[in-house]
Amino acid sequence: MSLRTQVAAWLVLLTAGMLSLTWAYTYGGGANPGLLDRAGPAVTWGLATAKLVFNLASAGTIGALVLAAFALPRHGAAHERALRFAGWSASAWSGGAAVHTYASFLFIANTAPSTGLSEAFLTYLTKIDAGRAGALATLIAGAVAVACFRLRSTRLLAATTATAFAGLLPLVMKSHASGGTDHADSTTAIFLHAATAAVWVGGLMVLVVLRKVLTPDQLGVTVRRYSSLALICFIALTVTGSLGALARITTVEALLSPYGVIVLAKLGILVILGVFGAVHRHWSINRMEKNPRRGGRLFAALAVAELGVMGAASGMAAALARTEPPQSTSAGLTGNANANAGESATVLPEPGLLEYISGWAPDPLWSLVCGFAVFAYLAGVRRLRADGRSWPLYRTVLWLAGVAVLFVVTNGGVHVYQGYLFNAHVLTQMMLTAVVPLLLVPAAPLTLVRRTVRARTDGSTGINEFVEHTVQPGLAVLNKDPVLAIFILAASLITIYYTPLLDWAATGQVGYSAMSLLALLSGCLATAALTGTQDSGLARQRLLVLTGTAALYAFGGWKITEQAPAMELPWYTAVGRPWGPLPAAAAEIGGPVMWSTAALWLAVTAVMAIKHHHRGPRAADARRANGPGRDLHMDMAS
User: What is the pTM of this model?
Assistant: First the structure.
Protein backbone atom coordinates (compact mmCIF):
# COMPACT_ATOMS: atom_id res chain seq x y z
CA MET A 1 0.00 0.00 0.00
CA SER A 2 1.47 3.32 -1.07
CA LEU A 3 2.14 6.21 1.26
CA ARG A 4 -0.63 8.15 -0.47
CA THR A 5 -3.16 5.44 0.38
CA GLN A 6 -2.01 5.35 4.01
CA VAL A 7 -2.34 9.13 4.33
CA ALA A 8 -5.81 8.94 2.77
CA ALA A 9 -6.79 6.23 5.27
CA TRP A 10 -5.74 8.32 8.28
CA LEU A 11 -7.45 11.44 6.90
CA VAL A 12 -10.67 9.52 6.28
CA LEU A 13 -10.54 7.96 9.75
CA LEU A 14 -9.92 11.22 11.61
CA THR A 15 -12.25 13.34 9.51
CA ALA A 16 -15.14 10.91 9.88
CA GLY A 17 -14.45 10.67 13.58
CA MET A 18 -14.44 14.43 14.14
CA LEU A 19 -17.53 15.01 11.99
CA SER A 20 -19.57 12.35 13.77
CA LEU A 21 -18.28 13.59 17.14
CA THR A 22 -19.35 17.14 16.32
CA TRP A 23 -22.83 16.05 15.27
CA ALA A 24 -23.45 13.62 18.14
CA TYR A 25 -21.93 15.86 20.82
CA THR A 26 -24.02 18.81 19.70
CA TYR A 27 -27.23 16.85 19.11
CA GLY A 28 -26.91 14.93 22.37
CA GLY A 29 -26.48 18.08 24.41
CA GLY A 30 -23.01 17.29 25.72
CA ALA A 31 -21.58 20.44 24.11
CA ASN A 32 -24.14 22.74 25.72
CA PRO A 33 -22.56 24.84 28.50
CA GLY A 34 -24.30 24.97 31.86
CA LEU A 35 -25.76 28.13 33.30
CA LEU A 36 -22.77 28.59 35.60
CA ASP A 37 -20.13 27.17 33.24
CA ARG A 38 -16.71 28.75 33.80
CA ALA A 39 -14.58 26.04 32.21
CA GLY A 40 -15.28 27.26 28.69
CA PRO A 41 -15.69 25.54 25.32
CA ALA A 42 -12.04 24.45 25.25
CA VAL A 43 -12.70 22.12 28.17
CA THR A 44 -16.11 21.02 26.91
CA TRP A 45 -14.83 20.05 23.47
CA GLY A 46 -11.42 18.99 24.76
CA LEU A 47 -13.07 16.28 26.85
CA ALA A 48 -14.83 14.72 23.89
CA THR A 49 -11.88 15.12 21.51
CA ALA A 50 -9.49 13.57 24.02
CA LYS A 51 -11.89 10.64 24.41
CA LEU A 52 -11.88 10.17 20.62
CA VAL A 53 -8.07 10.16 20.62
CA PHE A 54 -8.18 7.73 23.54
CA ASN A 55 -10.51 5.40 21.63
CA LEU A 56 -8.55 5.41 18.36
CA ALA A 57 -5.09 5.24 19.94
CA SER A 58 -6.04 2.42 22.31
CA ALA A 59 -7.56 0.59 19.35
CA GLY A 60 -4.35 0.98 17.37
CA THR A 61 -2.34 -0.37 20.29
CA ILE A 62 -4.54 -3.34 21.07
CA GLY A 63 -5.20 -4.23 17.43
CA ALA A 64 -1.49 -4.23 16.62
CA LEU A 65 -0.61 -6.34 19.66
CA VAL A 66 -3.35 -8.88 18.96
CA LEU A 67 -2.31 -9.26 15.32
CA ALA A 68 1.35 -9.57 16.36
CA ALA A 69 0.42 -12.30 18.84
CA PHE A 70 -2.07 -14.18 16.67
CA ALA A 71 -1.68 -13.47 12.98
CA LEU A 72 1.89 -12.46 12.14
CA PRO A 73 5.04 -14.61 11.91
CA ARG A 74 7.59 -13.98 14.64
CA HIS A 75 10.66 -11.82 13.94
CA GLY A 76 9.49 -10.78 10.47
CA ALA A 77 9.40 -7.22 9.15
CA ALA A 78 5.61 -7.10 9.54
CA HIS A 79 5.84 -8.25 13.15
CA GLU A 80 8.41 -5.61 14.01
CA ARG A 81 6.44 -2.85 12.29
CA ALA A 82 3.25 -3.90 14.09
CA LEU A 83 5.04 -3.60 17.44
CA ARG A 84 6.41 -0.17 16.54
CA PHE A 85 2.94 0.92 15.49
CA ALA A 86 1.61 -0.35 18.82
CA GLY A 87 4.30 1.60 20.67
CA TRP A 88 3.51 4.90 18.94
CA SER A 89 -0.22 4.32 19.32
CA ALA A 90 0.24 3.62 23.03
CA SER A 91 2.18 6.89 23.35
CA ALA A 92 -0.77 8.73 21.77
CA TRP A 93 -3.11 6.75 24.01
CA SER A 94 -1.20 7.87 27.10
CA GLY A 95 -1.30 11.48 25.93
CA GLY A 96 -5.03 11.30 25.19
CA ALA A 97 -5.70 9.77 28.61
CA ALA A 98 -3.66 12.52 30.30
CA VAL A 99 -5.51 15.30 28.48
CA HIS A 100 -8.85 13.65 29.19
CA THR A 101 -7.99 13.39 32.89
CA TYR A 102 -6.99 17.05 33.11
CA ALA A 103 -10.05 18.18 31.15
CA SER A 104 -12.27 16.08 33.43
CA PHE A 105 -10.79 17.84 36.44
CA LEU A 106 -11.39 21.27 34.91
CA PHE A 107 -14.95 20.30 34.02
CA ILE A 108 -15.74 18.97 37.51
CA ALA A 109 -14.01 21.91 39.23
CA ASN A 110 -15.68 24.31 36.77
CA THR A 111 -12.33 25.99 36.20
CA ALA A 112 -10.77 27.45 33.05
CA PRO A 113 -7.50 25.98 31.71
CA SER A 114 -5.75 29.31 32.34
CA THR A 115 -5.57 28.47 36.05
CA GLY A 116 -2.83 25.92 35.28
CA LEU A 117 -1.92 22.95 37.45
CA SER A 118 -2.84 23.36 41.08
CA GLU A 119 -2.80 21.52 44.35
CA ALA A 120 -6.47 20.69 43.77
CA PHE A 121 -5.50 18.80 40.62
CA LEU A 122 -2.98 16.71 42.56
CA THR A 123 -5.68 15.99 45.12
CA TYR A 124 -7.98 14.97 42.28
CA LEU A 125 -5.35 12.53 40.96
CA THR A 126 -4.59 10.96 44.31
CA LYS A 127 -7.83 11.01 46.30
CA ILE A 128 -10.77 11.18 43.89
CA ASP A 129 -11.82 7.95 42.14
CA ALA A 130 -12.26 9.58 38.72
CA GLY A 131 -8.84 11.21 38.95
CA ARG A 132 -7.14 8.03 40.07
CA ALA A 133 -8.79 6.14 37.22
CA GLY A 134 -7.50 8.67 34.69
CA ALA A 135 -4.02 8.61 36.17
CA LEU A 136 -3.97 4.81 36.16
CA ALA A 137 -5.10 4.69 32.53
CA THR A 138 -2.34 7.15 31.59
CA LEU A 139 0.32 5.14 33.41
CA ILE A 140 -0.80 1.81 31.94
CA ALA A 141 -0.77 3.22 28.41
CA GLY A 142 2.70 4.66 29.02
CA ALA A 143 3.98 1.34 30.34
CA VAL A 144 2.55 -0.46 27.30
CA ALA A 145 4.30 2.04 25.02
CA VAL A 146 7.66 1.37 26.66
CA ALA A 147 7.13 -2.39 26.53
CA CYS A 148 6.18 -2.35 22.84
CA PHE A 149 9.54 -0.88 21.86
CA ARG A 150 11.37 -3.54 23.90
CA LEU A 151 9.39 -6.70 23.15
CA ARG A 152 11.66 -9.66 22.52
CA SER A 153 9.75 -12.73 23.72
CA THR A 154 6.35 -14.36 23.22
CA ARG A 155 5.57 -14.27 26.92
CA LEU A 156 6.32 -10.57 27.17
CA LEU A 157 4.11 -9.96 24.14
CA ALA A 158 1.25 -11.86 25.81
CA ALA A 159 1.74 -9.93 29.06
CA THR A 160 1.84 -6.60 27.22
CA THR A 161 -1.32 -7.46 25.29
CA ALA A 162 -3.14 -8.35 28.53
CA THR A 163 -1.91 -5.11 30.11
CA ALA A 164 -3.20 -3.13 27.14
CA PHE A 165 -6.65 -4.63 27.56
CA ALA A 166 -6.48 -3.84 31.28
CA GLY A 167 -5.74 -0.23 30.34
CA LEU A 168 -9.34 0.10 29.17
CA LEU A 169 -10.75 -0.83 32.57
CA PRO A 170 -10.07 2.33 34.66
CA LEU A 171 -12.16 4.67 32.52
CA VAL A 172 -14.76 1.97 31.88
CA MET A 173 -15.21 1.51 35.63
CA LYS A 174 -15.78 5.25 36.06
CA SER A 175 -17.54 5.94 32.79
CA HIS A 176 -20.80 7.81 32.69
CA ALA A 177 -22.46 4.91 30.91
CA SER A 178 -21.64 2.44 33.68
CA GLY A 179 -23.15 4.49 36.43
CA GLY A 180 -26.60 4.30 37.93
CA THR A 181 -28.53 1.48 39.47
CA ASP A 182 -27.41 -1.05 36.89
CA HIS A 183 -23.71 -0.35 37.25
CA ALA A 184 -22.76 -3.87 38.37
CA ASP A 185 -24.35 -5.52 35.36
CA SER A 186 -23.23 -2.98 32.74
CA THR A 187 -19.52 -2.72 33.52
CA THR A 188 -18.52 -6.01 31.93
CA ALA A 189 -20.67 -5.29 28.88
CA ILE A 190 -19.03 -1.88 28.44
CA PHE A 191 -15.54 -3.37 28.80
CA LEU A 192 -16.25 -6.16 26.31
CA HIS A 193 -17.73 -3.61 23.94
CA ALA A 194 -14.65 -1.39 24.18
CA ALA A 195 -12.18 -4.29 23.96
CA THR A 196 -13.74 -5.96 20.91
CA ALA A 197 -14.15 -2.62 19.16
CA ALA A 198 -10.45 -1.95 19.77
CA VAL A 199 -9.43 -5.29 18.23
CA TRP A 200 -11.68 -4.75 15.20
CA VAL A 201 -10.81 -1.11 14.49
CA GLY A 202 -7.16 -1.38 15.48
CA GLY A 203 -6.62 -4.56 13.51
CA LEU A 204 -7.75 -2.90 10.30
CA MET A 205 -5.58 0.14 11.03
CA VAL A 206 -2.56 -2.13 11.37
CA LEU A 207 -3.33 -3.98 8.15
CA VAL A 208 -3.25 -0.66 6.33
CA VAL A 209 0.21 0.00 7.77
CA LEU A 210 1.49 -3.53 7.11
CA ARG A 211 0.34 -3.68 3.49
CA LYS A 212 3.65 -2.17 2.44
CA VAL A 213 5.80 -4.87 4.06
CA LEU A 214 3.61 -7.94 3.50
CA THR A 215 3.92 -9.90 0.28
CA PRO A 216 0.63 -10.39 -1.62
CA ASP A 217 0.41 -14.00 -0.42
CA GLN A 218 1.15 -13.04 3.19
CA LEU A 219 -1.45 -10.29 3.04
CA GLY A 220 -4.15 -12.76 2.01
CA VAL A 221 -3.31 -15.10 4.90
CA THR A 222 -3.14 -12.25 7.42
CA VAL A 223 -6.41 -10.71 6.24
CA ARG A 224 -8.16 -14.08 6.53
CA ARG A 225 -6.93 -14.45 10.12
CA TYR A 226 -8.00 -10.89 10.91
CA SER A 227 -11.38 -11.63 9.32
CA SER A 228 -11.94 -14.43 11.84
CA LEU A 229 -11.18 -12.02 14.69
CA ALA A 230 -13.44 -9.39 13.12
CA LEU A 231 -16.35 -11.83 12.95
CA ILE A 232 -15.96 -12.63 16.66
CA CYS A 233 -15.76 -8.91 17.43
CA PHE A 234 -18.87 -8.21 15.37
CA ILE A 235 -20.88 -10.79 17.30
CA ALA A 236 -19.57 -9.54 20.65
CA LEU A 237 -20.30 -5.92 19.76
CA THR A 238 -23.82 -6.82 18.69
CA VAL A 239 -24.54 -8.69 21.92
CA THR A 240 -22.98 -6.18 24.32
CA GLY A 241 -24.36 -3.19 22.44
CA SER A 242 -27.85 -4.68 22.45
CA LEU A 243 -27.73 -5.48 26.16
CA GLY A 244 -26.43 -1.99 26.95
CA ALA A 245 -29.11 -0.33 24.85
CA LEU A 246 -31.91 -2.44 26.31
CA ALA A 247 -30.75 -1.56 29.83
CA ARG A 248 -31.14 2.17 29.17
CA ILE A 249 -33.75 2.44 26.44
CA THR A 250 -36.95 0.86 27.76
CA THR A 251 -39.64 3.03 26.16
CA VAL A 252 -40.44 4.60 22.79
CA GLU A 253 -39.81 8.04 24.33
CA ALA A 254 -36.34 6.92 25.40
CA LEU A 255 -35.67 5.55 21.92
CA LEU A 256 -36.56 8.92 20.39
CA SER A 257 -34.44 10.88 22.88
CA PRO A 258 -31.06 12.26 21.71
CA TYR A 259 -29.33 9.35 23.44
CA GLY A 260 -31.60 6.84 21.69
CA VAL A 261 -31.14 8.45 18.28
CA ILE A 262 -27.35 8.32 18.62
CA VAL A 263 -27.60 4.65 19.63
CA LEU A 264 -29.74 3.99 16.55
CA ALA A 265 -27.13 5.74 14.41
CA LYS A 266 -24.43 3.50 15.90
CA LEU A 267 -26.62 0.47 15.19
CA GLY A 268 -26.87 1.55 11.56
CA ILE A 269 -23.07 1.87 11.38
CA LEU A 270 -22.71 -1.60 12.89
CA VAL A 271 -24.92 -3.01 10.14
CA ILE A 272 -22.79 -1.25 7.49
CA LEU A 273 -19.63 -2.67 9.05
CA GLY A 274 -21.23 -6.10 9.01
CA VAL A 275 -21.78 -5.70 5.27
CA PHE A 276 -18.11 -4.72 4.86
CA GLY A 277 -17.11 -7.82 6.79
CA ALA A 278 -19.28 -10.05 4.62
CA VAL A 279 -17.76 -8.53 1.47
CA HIS A 280 -14.27 -9.19 2.81
CA ARG A 281 -15.02 -12.81 3.80
CA HIS A 282 -16.92 -13.83 0.68
CA TRP A 283 -15.32 -11.74 -2.04
CA SER A 284 -12.26 -9.65 -1.17
CA ILE A 285 -10.25 -12.47 0.43
CA ASN A 286 -11.08 -14.86 -2.40
CA ARG A 287 -9.93 -12.27 -4.93
CA MET A 288 -6.63 -11.89 -3.07
CA GLU A 289 -6.08 -15.64 -3.14
CA LYS A 290 -6.80 -15.86 -6.88
CA ASN A 291 -5.00 -12.67 -7.90
CA PRO A 292 -2.87 -11.44 -4.95
CA ARG A 293 -1.74 -8.11 -6.45
CA ARG A 294 -5.07 -6.98 -7.84
CA GLY A 295 -6.93 -8.37 -4.83
CA GLY A 296 -4.58 -6.47 -2.53
CA ARG A 297 -5.46 -3.17 -4.20
CA LEU A 298 -9.15 -3.98 -3.88
CA PHE A 299 -8.68 -4.73 -0.20
CA ALA A 300 -6.88 -1.42 0.28
CA ALA A 301 -9.78 0.52 -1.22
CA LEU A 302 -12.33 -1.31 0.91
CA ALA A 303 -10.17 -0.85 4.03
CA VAL A 304 -10.00 2.93 3.56
CA ALA A 305 -13.78 3.14 3.20
CA GLU A 306 -14.32 0.85 6.17
CA LEU A 307 -11.97 2.92 8.33
CA GLY A 308 -14.12 5.95 7.56
CA VAL A 309 -17.20 4.14 8.87
CA MET A 310 -15.25 2.98 11.91
CA GLY A 311 -14.10 6.54 12.56
CA ALA A 312 -17.73 7.69 12.53
CA ALA A 313 -18.60 4.99 15.08
CA SER A 314 -15.67 6.02 17.30
CA GLY A 315 -16.76 9.66 17.20
CA MET A 316 -20.30 8.74 18.23
CA ALA A 317 -18.98 6.54 21.03
CA ALA A 318 -16.90 9.44 22.37
CA ALA A 319 -19.95 11.74 22.28
CA LEU A 320 -22.24 9.11 23.79
CA ALA A 321 -19.98 8.89 26.85
CA ARG A 322 -20.87 12.56 27.55
CA THR A 323 -24.57 12.27 26.67
CA GLU A 324 -27.20 11.97 29.39
CA PRO A 325 -29.03 8.62 29.03
CA PRO A 326 -32.81 8.58 29.33
CA GLN A 327 -34.28 7.84 32.73
CA SER A 328 -35.12 4.14 33.07
CA THR A 329 -38.73 3.40 33.87
CA SER A 330 -38.32 -0.23 34.85
CA ALA A 331 -35.97 -1.75 37.38
CA GLY A 332 -35.98 -5.28 36.06
CA LEU A 333 -34.80 -8.45 37.67
CA THR A 334 -31.06 -7.97 37.37
CA GLY A 335 -29.52 -9.54 40.44
CA ASN A 336 -27.68 -6.26 40.95
CA ALA A 337 -25.66 -5.88 44.10
CA ASN A 338 -25.71 -2.11 43.80
CA ALA A 339 -29.48 -1.72 43.80
CA ASN A 340 -30.85 -0.36 47.03
CA ALA A 341 -32.62 -2.56 49.52
CA GLY A 342 -35.97 -0.89 49.01
CA GLU A 343 -36.03 -1.74 45.31
CA SER A 344 -34.90 -5.29 46.04
CA ALA A 345 -37.80 -5.93 48.38
CA THR A 346 -40.37 -4.89 45.78
CA VAL A 347 -38.77 -6.36 42.67
CA LEU A 348 -37.00 -9.58 43.66
CA PRO A 349 -39.11 -12.45 45.04
CA GLU A 350 -38.03 -14.47 48.03
CA PRO A 351 -35.44 -17.12 47.10
CA GLY A 352 -36.72 -20.60 46.48
CA LEU A 353 -36.21 -23.54 44.12
CA LEU A 354 -38.64 -22.16 41.55
CA GLU A 355 -36.98 -18.73 41.66
CA TYR A 356 -33.54 -20.27 41.19
CA ILE A 357 -34.82 -22.20 38.17
CA SER A 358 -36.89 -19.45 36.55
CA GLY A 359 -34.78 -16.37 37.33
CA TRP A 360 -33.02 -14.61 34.47
CA ALA A 361 -30.17 -12.10 34.53
CA PRO A 362 -28.12 -12.23 31.30
CA ASP A 363 -24.39 -11.83 31.73
CA PRO A 364 -22.72 -10.60 28.50
CA LEU A 365 -19.36 -12.24 29.14
CA TRP A 366 -20.63 -15.71 29.96
CA SER A 367 -23.37 -15.58 27.34
CA LEU A 368 -20.71 -15.00 24.69
CA VAL A 369 -18.39 -17.63 26.18
CA CYS A 370 -21.16 -20.24 26.12
CA GLY A 371 -22.24 -19.33 22.61
CA PHE A 372 -18.72 -19.47 21.19
CA ALA A 373 -18.00 -22.71 23.10
CA VAL A 374 -20.98 -24.48 21.54
CA PHE A 375 -20.26 -23.16 18.04
CA ALA A 376 -16.53 -23.98 18.12
CA TYR A 377 -17.04 -27.50 19.47
CA LEU A 378 -19.77 -28.39 16.96
CA ALA A 379 -17.70 -26.88 14.14
CA GLY A 380 -14.80 -29.12 15.16
CA VAL A 381 -16.99 -32.22 15.21
CA ARG A 382 -18.41 -31.28 11.81
CA ARG A 383 -14.91 -30.91 10.37
CA LEU A 384 -13.91 -34.34 11.70
CA ARG A 385 -16.94 -35.97 10.09
CA ALA A 386 -16.33 -34.11 6.84
CA ASP A 387 -12.84 -35.65 6.81
CA GLY A 388 -14.29 -39.11 7.38
CA ARG A 389 -13.19 -39.36 11.01
CA SER A 390 -15.40 -40.18 13.97
CA TRP A 391 -15.93 -38.47 17.31
CA PRO A 392 -17.71 -40.11 20.26
CA LEU A 393 -21.29 -38.89 20.62
CA TYR A 394 -21.11 -38.99 24.41
CA ARG A 395 -18.38 -36.35 24.36
CA THR A 396 -20.52 -33.98 22.34
CA VAL A 397 -23.45 -34.59 24.69
CA LEU A 398 -21.25 -33.96 27.74
CA TRP A 399 -19.90 -30.72 26.24
CA LEU A 400 -23.35 -29.39 25.40
CA ALA A 401 -24.63 -30.34 28.85
CA GLY A 402 -21.65 -28.69 30.55
CA VAL A 403 -22.09 -25.47 28.59
CA ALA A 404 -25.82 -25.53 29.36
CA VAL A 405 -25.14 -25.80 33.09
CA LEU A 406 -22.52 -23.06 32.83
CA PHE A 407 -25.03 -20.82 31.05
CA VAL A 408 -27.74 -21.44 33.64
CA VAL A 409 -25.39 -20.76 36.56
CA THR A 410 -24.03 -17.52 35.11
CA ASN A 411 -27.23 -16.20 33.53
CA GLY A 412 -30.11 -17.75 35.46
CA GLY A 413 -31.55 -17.60 38.94
CA VAL A 414 -28.27 -18.47 40.64
CA HIS A 415 -26.75 -15.36 39.07
CA VAL A 416 -29.78 -13.28 40.12
CA TYR A 417 -29.44 -14.17 43.79
CA GLN A 418 -25.64 -14.17 43.83
CA GLY A 419 -25.88 -10.39 43.98
CA TYR A 420 -28.02 -10.60 47.13
CA LEU A 421 -27.10 -13.75 49.08
CA PHE A 422 -23.78 -15.09 50.29
CA ASN A 423 -25.05 -18.68 50.13
CA ALA A 424 -25.90 -18.14 46.43
CA HIS A 425 -22.32 -16.94 45.97
CA VAL A 426 -21.05 -20.21 47.47
CA LEU A 427 -23.41 -22.17 45.23
CA THR A 428 -22.09 -20.30 42.18
CA GLN A 429 -18.48 -21.02 43.12
CA MET A 430 -19.08 -24.70 43.80
CA MET A 431 -21.16 -25.28 40.66
CA LEU A 432 -18.35 -23.77 38.58
CA THR A 433 -15.61 -25.61 40.47
CA ALA A 434 -17.25 -29.02 40.83
CA VAL A 435 -20.27 -29.64 38.59
CA VAL A 436 -19.42 -27.91 35.30
CA PRO A 437 -15.87 -29.40 35.02
CA LEU A 438 -17.26 -32.92 35.47
CA LEU A 439 -19.08 -32.40 32.17
CA LEU A 440 -16.56 -30.31 30.25
CA VAL A 441 -13.32 -32.16 31.00
CA PRO A 442 -14.42 -35.63 29.77
CA ALA A 443 -15.62 -33.97 26.55
CA ALA A 444 -11.91 -33.64 25.63
CA PRO A 445 -12.01 -30.21 23.90
CA LEU A 446 -8.23 -29.96 23.56
CA THR A 447 -8.09 -33.34 21.87
CA LEU A 448 -10.67 -32.03 19.43
CA VAL A 449 -8.50 -28.97 18.83
CA ARG A 450 -5.45 -31.09 18.07
CA ARG A 451 -7.39 -33.21 15.59
CA THR A 452 -9.16 -30.42 13.73
CA VAL A 453 -7.08 -27.23 13.83
CA ARG A 454 -4.28 -27.21 11.31
CA ALA A 455 -0.80 -26.40 12.53
CA ARG A 456 0.73 -23.22 11.13
CA THR A 457 3.96 -23.29 9.18
CA ASP A 458 4.81 -19.58 8.99
CA GLY A 459 6.02 -19.13 12.57
CA SER A 460 2.86 -17.44 13.88
CA THR A 461 0.91 -18.63 16.91
CA GLY A 462 -2.58 -20.02 16.37
CA ILE A 463 -4.88 -22.02 18.61
CA ASN A 464 -3.06 -25.28 17.88
CA GLU A 465 0.33 -23.79 18.75
CA PHE A 466 -1.04 -22.19 21.92
CA VAL A 467 -2.48 -25.49 23.10
CA GLU A 468 0.66 -27.44 22.25
CA HIS A 469 3.22 -25.08 23.75
CA THR A 470 1.30 -23.51 26.64
CA VAL A 471 -1.66 -25.59 27.77
CA GLN A 472 -0.41 -29.15 27.26
CA PRO A 473 2.86 -28.78 29.21
CA GLY A 474 0.91 -27.54 32.24
CA LEU A 475 -1.59 -30.39 31.98
CA ALA A 476 1.27 -32.88 31.65
CA VAL A 477 2.70 -31.68 34.96
CA LEU A 478 -0.67 -32.07 36.65
CA ASN A 479 -1.12 -35.53 35.16
CA LYS A 480 2.22 -36.71 36.53
CA ASP A 481 1.70 -35.17 39.98
CA PRO A 482 -2.03 -35.09 40.86
CA VAL A 483 -1.22 -33.90 44.39
CA LEU A 484 -1.05 -30.43 42.84
CA ALA A 485 -4.84 -30.56 42.51
CA ILE A 486 -5.20 -30.06 46.27
CA PHE A 487 -3.01 -26.97 46.18
CA ILE A 488 -4.93 -25.58 43.19
CA LEU A 489 -8.27 -25.98 44.93
CA ALA A 490 -6.93 -24.62 48.24
CA ALA A 491 -5.45 -21.56 46.53
CA SER A 492 -8.74 -21.01 44.73
CA LEU A 493 -10.80 -21.18 47.94
CA ILE A 494 -8.43 -18.84 49.79
CA THR A 495 -8.48 -16.32 46.93
CA ILE A 496 -12.26 -16.37 46.58
CA TYR A 497 -13.15 -16.17 50.27
CA TYR A 498 -10.20 -14.56 52.06
CA THR A 499 -9.03 -11.79 49.74
CA PRO A 500 -10.65 -8.55 48.48
CA LEU A 501 -12.08 -10.61 45.61
CA LEU A 502 -14.95 -11.54 47.96
CA ASP A 503 -15.97 -7.87 48.27
CA TRP A 504 -15.48 -7.23 44.55
CA ALA A 505 -17.60 -10.25 43.59
CA ALA A 506 -20.38 -9.00 45.89
CA THR A 507 -20.52 -5.44 44.57
CA GLY A 508 -19.30 -5.44 40.98
CA GLN A 509 -19.61 -7.41 37.78
CA VAL A 510 -15.87 -7.37 37.11
CA GLY A 511 -15.18 -9.01 40.46
CA TYR A 512 -17.95 -11.53 39.88
CA SER A 513 -16.52 -12.40 36.45
CA ALA A 514 -13.01 -12.80 37.89
CA MET A 515 -14.33 -15.06 40.66
CA SER A 516 -16.31 -17.16 38.19
CA LEU A 517 -13.33 -17.56 35.86
CA LEU A 518 -11.02 -18.55 38.74
CA ALA A 519 -13.54 -21.10 40.05
CA LEU A 520 -14.07 -22.65 36.62
CA LEU A 521 -10.37 -22.84 35.75
CA SER A 522 -9.35 -24.32 39.10
CA GLY A 523 -12.14 -26.88 38.88
CA CYS A 524 -11.20 -27.92 35.35
CA LEU A 525 -7.52 -28.25 36.25
CA ALA A 526 -8.27 -30.28 39.37
CA THR A 527 -10.72 -32.53 37.56
CA ALA A 528 -8.23 -33.07 34.72
CA ALA A 529 -5.46 -33.92 37.20
CA LEU A 530 -7.62 -36.47 39.01
CA THR A 531 -9.29 -38.15 36.03
CA GLY A 532 -6.50 -38.33 33.46
CA THR A 533 -5.71 -41.73 31.97
CA GLN A 534 -2.43 -42.99 33.41
CA ASP A 535 -0.91 -46.12 34.93
CA SER A 536 -2.40 -47.89 37.93
CA GLY A 537 0.15 -46.45 40.34
CA LEU A 538 -0.98 -42.92 39.63
CA ALA A 539 -4.61 -44.03 39.81
CA ARG A 540 -4.02 -45.18 43.40
CA GLN A 541 -2.31 -41.88 44.14
CA ARG A 542 -5.35 -40.04 42.79
CA LEU A 543 -7.60 -41.88 45.23
CA LEU A 544 -5.37 -40.67 48.07
CA VAL A 545 -5.53 -37.15 46.67
CA LEU A 546 -9.31 -37.38 46.61
CA THR A 547 -9.22 -38.17 50.31
CA GLY A 548 -7.15 -35.06 50.93
CA THR A 549 -9.53 -33.02 48.78
CA ALA A 550 -12.48 -34.27 50.83
CA ALA A 551 -10.73 -33.08 53.97
CA LEU A 552 -10.07 -29.70 52.33
CA TYR A 553 -13.73 -29.19 51.47
CA ALA A 554 -14.84 -30.42 54.88
CA PHE A 555 -12.62 -27.85 56.56
CA GLY A 556 -13.58 -25.13 54.07
CA GLY A 557 -17.30 -25.72 54.57
CA TRP A 558 -16.87 -25.67 58.35
CA LYS A 559 -14.99 -22.34 58.23
CA ILE A 560 -17.62 -20.83 55.92
CA THR A 561 -20.40 -21.91 58.31
CA GLU A 562 -18.48 -20.52 61.26
CA GLN A 563 -17.52 -17.22 59.59
CA ALA A 564 -20.67 -16.74 57.47
CA PRO A 565 -21.91 -13.58 59.26
CA ALA A 566 -18.57 -11.83 58.65
CA MET A 567 -18.30 -13.08 55.08
CA GLU A 568 -21.84 -11.87 54.40
CA LEU A 569 -20.98 -8.26 55.23
CA PRO A 570 -20.27 -7.12 51.63
CA TRP A 571 -23.74 -8.30 50.57
CA TYR A 572 -25.43 -6.89 53.70
CA THR A 573 -23.73 -3.51 53.24
CA ALA A 574 -24.73 -3.32 49.56
CA VAL A 575 -28.33 -4.55 49.62
CA GLY A 576 -29.22 -5.28 53.23
CA ARG A 577 -31.58 -8.18 53.98
CA PRO A 578 -34.57 -7.49 51.72
CA TRP A 579 -36.43 -10.62 52.88
CA GLY A 580 -35.65 -10.37 56.59
CA PRO A 581 -34.57 -13.48 58.57
CA LEU A 582 -35.64 -15.92 55.86
CA PRO A 583 -34.17 -19.44 56.35
CA ALA A 584 -33.34 -19.79 52.64
CA ALA A 585 -31.39 -16.53 52.81
CA ALA A 586 -29.23 -17.52 55.79
CA ALA A 587 -25.51 -17.12 55.10
CA GLU A 588 -24.76 -20.24 57.15
CA ILE A 589 -26.30 -22.40 54.42
CA GLY A 590 -23.10 -21.77 52.45
CA GLY A 591 -21.28 -24.49 54.38
CA PRO A 592 -23.76 -27.29 53.64
CA VAL A 593 -23.92 -26.10 50.03
CA MET A 594 -20.16 -26.58 49.75
CA TRP A 595 -20.27 -29.98 51.43
CA SER A 596 -23.08 -31.39 49.30
CA THR A 597 -21.65 -30.13 46.00
CA ALA A 598 -18.16 -31.32 46.90
CA ALA A 599 -19.56 -34.75 47.83
CA LEU A 600 -21.09 -35.07 44.36
CA TRP A 601 -17.82 -34.04 42.68
CA LEU A 602 -15.74 -36.39 44.85
CA ALA A 603 -18.05 -39.35 44.23
CA VAL A 604 -18.05 -38.97 40.45
CA THR A 605 -14.32 -38.25 40.32
CA ALA A 606 -13.59 -41.30 42.49
CA VAL A 607 -15.59 -43.51 40.13
CA MET A 608 -13.61 -42.15 37.18
CA ALA A 609 -10.29 -42.65 39.00
CA ILE A 610 -11.20 -46.23 39.92
CA LYS A 611 -12.16 -46.88 36.31
CA HIS A 612 -8.74 -45.69 35.16
CA HIS A 613 -7.11 -47.75 37.91
CA HIS A 614 -8.59 -50.95 36.50
CA ARG A 615 -7.84 -50.14 32.86
CA GLY A 616 -4.42 -48.59 33.54
CA PRO A 617 -2.26 -51.54 32.37
CA ARG A 618 -4.34 -51.98 29.21
CA ALA A 619 -4.12 -48.27 28.43
CA ALA A 620 -0.36 -48.34 28.89
CA ASP A 621 -0.04 -51.30 26.50
CA ALA A 622 -2.23 -49.51 23.96
CA ARG A 623 -0.09 -46.38 24.17
CA ARG A 624 3.07 -48.39 23.61
CA ALA A 625 1.44 -50.09 20.62
CA ASN A 626 0.30 -46.78 19.15
CA GLY A 627 3.71 -45.19 19.54
CA PRO A 628 4.68 -41.80 20.91
CA GLY A 629 3.26 -39.91 17.95
CA ARG A 630 -0.27 -41.04 18.82
CA ASP A 631 -0.08 -40.76 22.60
CA LEU A 632 -3.41 -39.36 23.72
CA HIS A 633 -3.01 -40.04 27.45
CA MET A 634 -4.25 -36.51 28.11
CA ASP A 635 -7.54 -37.33 26.45
CA MET A 636 -9.69 -36.83 29.53
CA ALA A 637 -7.86 -33.66 30.48
CA SER A 638 -7.69 -32.24 27.01
Answer: 0.85
